[in-house]
Design goal:
By secondary structure, the chain is an all-beta fold. The protein is 0% helix and 46% strand.
Length: 103
């Protein structure tokens, strides 16, 4: 099992927002929802679009390129043209720091 990696300051992410981070060569999207923080792949599975440029609404991220929607908590693709799910990542909060595990 991999180590926890420090990736962001929790205070830098507003509720219902998303940021992009790069960790060990992987682009991740870190989200802050009403009930906590979540992480998925940062690039849309349908096209090479940065999800941090998309829109967070009602627990979903909408790709800025073709408006495919993914459920943030599960990574499930929920609307066309996206059909391939996003990978999700385990997070934990220590103080104000967000840590992620990549495996």
């Amino acid at each position: 099992m991999s180590d926890w990696l420090d990736v962001a300051n929790a205070d830098d992410i507003d509720e219902d927002d998303v940021i992009q981070v790069e960790v060990e060569g992987q682009v991740l999207a870190i989200y802050r929802l009403e009930d906590g923080f979540y992480a998925t792949d940062g690039i849309c599975s349908h096209a090479e679009a940065c999800l941090a440029d998309g829109f967070v609404m009602d627990g979903f991220i909408e790709c800025p390129l073709h408006q495919g929607r993914f459920e943030i908590k599960t990574g499930k693709a929920r609307s066309a043209p996206a059909t391939e799910d996003l990978r999700t990542y385990e997070l934990k909060i220590e103080g104000s720091r967000i840590l992620v595990r990549l495996d």
